[in-house]
Recover the amino acids of this structure.
């Protein structure tokens, strides 16, 4: 590979054009067959060299050069933000999904495999949230360090007791997770517990920097507890407020702020509402005193807005995770924005 | 370093070569018959087979899912073969109607069952980057058989054989690389070789296909894009460039 690279110093500019010529060359009509075949073979050989060299360049570009820091692969942005807060300069974080993406399913990109191969620690929600893509990704990456069961794999939701654990696992109940509702990051008390365990895990996988993690972890806990107290006092008017969820994503948030979840627009998780269900919803939720309709930034806003228009109950888009809204830049501003939007929705009510 | 990242792309490239090997010759026949959307319809009906199996509560293990998918695809192929004989002028329209009809029956069957949707998604949205060498072995065996039938049996003339082979091939390849990439691998190289009136259309089709896959795989690695969609785009661009230069 190196030899080829040194022979072709300008591959990146000339490579694709040459490949184009391979294909067009033997679409030619008039060349004698034998000559065509010979030319094709030599072109193909050359093209192969170019391809390998190009790959080399690609690969070089994909690989982080200053690999001193702990390589962390975060499945969702909330965990990327948390581990950055806890690890500081000692961690280099790659995030697999963005705040506006549905974490249940993502498209395969080469960088995902490349980053997971290099990772020293993978942090995911777990509890089957990423079951559609993380198992295949782990298989393709073939990185023993981050396989489930090893210290390099940290499943955040599996560290705490989950709510809505189904009594009965039946396909008729909708797209439910056997382990319980995995959307734990909407309650800052969960983040607090997870942060403590994550600090311990960072120390486990990177003992050389144990003192730094210990100190940063303690600082985070102090700051976070103060922030929780601040959010809770600001959110006092939300206590007892009835909400309607678009998808069953908000049980932890509702539990934290004392809101009552009255209904979901999806009759069962992952199942769109039928017209009959929707009609029932439209008559029922105003009668039961619902004051807010909440939906995550990554979800289709049309169903909640439809219900909002018909009932006059305001539909509030919440960030759901870091990056879901412009204001939610890290785990702290995530809750600043969430609480702020809920309060604004409550006061906007006529 | 180099080796490590080659490991990521080579199964996808190999998958692409395998898919192209069978789809370029089949695509030329499809284009000649003027039934370009047949693979979408067959794939959709194969998906319907899976959803129906799920709906009736038949055991949902790998082989029973495959069996019901292939059975549904073969049934659709038989229907299309019959309509091609009876109503040749309306074949394209019938294929379109079959596509929309089976897609909507799926939606109705799935309205109460999100787990069926997962099976369906697995069947229709294969992702080329997730393919492991282990997945390729059954596909390799099947494609060799398909190429054998194509080489020895006259698929252009023997309509029944063509439809049967086509249904089985599409059901397998859609699960590997997804419906868009199957459509592109089937039609785009055949289209390019047809448009430039290549003297060796098969070779021209293979060249366009391979160049498109290579460009797409590299592009998706360099620009961090979803691989399947990137390959479809580079296939189309490669074909367009070939046609523009040669005509």
């Amino acid at each position: 590979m190196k030899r080829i690279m040194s022979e072709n110093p300008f591959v990146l500019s000339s490579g694709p054009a040459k490949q184009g010529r391979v294909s067009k060359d033997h679409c030619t009509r008039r060349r004698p067959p034998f000559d065509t075949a010979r030319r094709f073979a030599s072109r193909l050989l050359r093209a192969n060299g170019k391809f390998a060299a190009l790959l080399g360049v690609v690969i070089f570009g994909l690989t982080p050069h200053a690999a001193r820091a702990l390589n962390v692969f975060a499945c969702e942005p909330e965990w990327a933000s948390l581990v950055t807060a806890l690890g500081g300069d000692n961690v280099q974080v790659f995030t697999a999904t963005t705040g506006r993406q549905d974490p249940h399913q993502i498209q395969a990109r080469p960088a995902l495999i490349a980053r997971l191969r290099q990772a020293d620690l993978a942090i995911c929600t777990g509890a089957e949230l990423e079951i559609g893509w993380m198992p295949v990704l782990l298989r393709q990456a073939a990185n023993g360090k981050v396989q489930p069961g090893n210290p390099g794999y940290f499943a955040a939701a599996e560290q705490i007791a989950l709510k809505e654990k189904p009594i009965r696992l039946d396909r008729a109940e909708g797209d439910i997770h056997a382990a319980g509702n995995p959307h734990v990051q909407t309650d800052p008390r969960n983040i607090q517990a997870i942060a403590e365990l994550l600090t311990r895990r960072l120390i486990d996988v990177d003992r050389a920097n144990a003192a730094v993690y210990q100190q940063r972890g303690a600082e985070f806990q102090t700051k976070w507890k103060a922030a929780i107290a601040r959010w809770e006092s600001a959110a006092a008017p939300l206590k007892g407020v009835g909400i309607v969820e678009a998808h069953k994503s908000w049980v932890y948030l509702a539990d934290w702020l004392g809101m009552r979840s009255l209904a979901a627009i999806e009759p069962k998780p992952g199942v769109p509402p039928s017209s009959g269900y929707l009609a029932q919803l439209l008559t029922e939720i105003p009668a039961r005193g619902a004051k807010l309709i909440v939906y995550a930034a990554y979800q289709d806003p049309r169903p909640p807005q439809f219900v909002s228009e018909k009932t006059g109950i305001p539909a509030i888009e919440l960030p759901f995770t870091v990056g879901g809204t412009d204001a939610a830049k890290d785990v702290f501003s995530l809750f600043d924005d969430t609480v702020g939007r809920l309060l604004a929705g409550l006061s906007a009510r006529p | 370093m180099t080796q490590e990242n080659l490991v990521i792309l080579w199964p996808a490239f190999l998958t692409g070569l395998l898919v192209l090997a069978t789809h370029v010759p089949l695509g030329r026949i499809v284009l000649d018959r003027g039934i370009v959307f047949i693979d979408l319809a067959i794939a959709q009906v194969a998906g319907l087979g899976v959803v129906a199996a799920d709906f009736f509560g038949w055991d949902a293990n790998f082989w029973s899912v495959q069996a019901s998918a292939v059975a549904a695809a073969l049934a659709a192929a038989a229907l299309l073969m019959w309509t091609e004989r009876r109503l040749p002028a309306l074949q394209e329209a019938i294929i379109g109607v079959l596509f929309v009809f089976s897609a909507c029956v799926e939606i109705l069957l799935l309205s109460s069952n999100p787990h069926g949707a997962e099976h369906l998604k697995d069947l229709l949205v294969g992702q080329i980057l997730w393919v492991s060498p282990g997945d390729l072995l059954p596909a390799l065996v099947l494609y060799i058989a398909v190429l054998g039938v194509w080489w020895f049996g006259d698929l252009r003339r023997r309509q029944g054989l063509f439809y049967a082979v086509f249904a089985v091939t599409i059901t397998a390849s859609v699960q590997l690389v997804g419906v868009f990439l199957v459509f592109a691998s089937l039609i785009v190289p055949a289209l390019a070789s047809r448009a430039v009136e290549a003297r060796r259309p098969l070779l021209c089709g293979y060249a366009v296909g391979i160049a498109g896959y290579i460009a797409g795989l590299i592009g998706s690695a360099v620009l961090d894009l979803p691989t399947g969609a990137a390959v479809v785009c580079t296939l189309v661009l490669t074909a367009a460039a070939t046609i523009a230069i040669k005509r």
User: Anything to note?
Assistant: Residues 1-34, 59-67 of chain A have pLDDT under 50 and may be disordered. The longest helix of chain A spans residues 33-62. The domain at 70-231 of chain A is CATH 3.40.50.1980 (Rossmann fold). Chain A touches chain B through 51 residues (CB under 8 Å).
